[in-house]
Amino acid sequence: MTAPHLASRCATVTPSEAVQLAQASFRSILRAFSHPGKIVAAPRMSQTVGPMSEGMLSAVLCLLDGEVSTWLDPAFRTSEIEEFLRLRMGVSVSPDPTDVDFALIGDAQEMPDLRTFRAGTLMEPNRSATLLIQLPSLVGGTPISLCGPGIKNAVSVAPSGLPPWFWTSWDGNAARFPVGVDVLLVDANSFSGLPRSIRRSSQCS
Q1: Mutual orientation of helices 18-34 and 54-63 as an angle, nearest 10°?
Q2: CA 68-65-196 angle, 5° bins
């Protein structure tokens, strides 16, 4: 995910926190994607919406607007969240995960395989989906070593709550580069970016 793409998605939609929150979220998310695997603090929120964590809500407020389409997994498919996205933010919520700009995932254990989501094309790789995955924590899980652009040598990450198949699916996603999905891992207070160009270090040579 590039800086111009992020900038085009940074929405200022809330009456009280709009500009400051959007700018702070933009900087944090940009840093997370520029330094893959690094845990970056998310802006603190004064509210939450249903089962969304503060971190997820701050990402949603920055990245989503009336020009993007979004899929909600069953954990986030609540009347409170749908009303917030549609009525307050003007976001188009789609029942089809295969052709959306963003996917909001509240229960990672039950999430679809990464190949379910739009991967873009060689002519338009920017049309791929970005997955926002809410986790209980970005630490405490099984360590995985990553390498690629933005990582000097290798970095170890250990997010907890991802399904057992996630990293195998990620291998396939990275192998498709320049197409494929981007992922933003989110817990209550932090972000960690996984651009599609990042691989497990065992596959880097």
Answers
A1: 100
A2: 55
DSSP state of 137: B
Helix (H) or strand (E) holding 9: helix 3-9
Residue 143: exposure state from Cβ atoms within 10 A (0-12, 13-18, ≥19) = exposed
Give me the residues paired with residue 200 across strands: 146
Tallying the residues shown for the chain, one arrives at 205
Would you place residue 88 in the very low, low, confident or very high pLDDT band (cuts 50, 70, 90)? confident
Q: Residues 151-194: pLDDT tens digits? A: 988 999 999 999 999 999 999 999 999 999 999 999 999 999 99
CA 132, 95, 22, 107 torsion: positive or negative? negative
DSSP three-state, residue 183: strand
In this prediction the pTM is 0.90
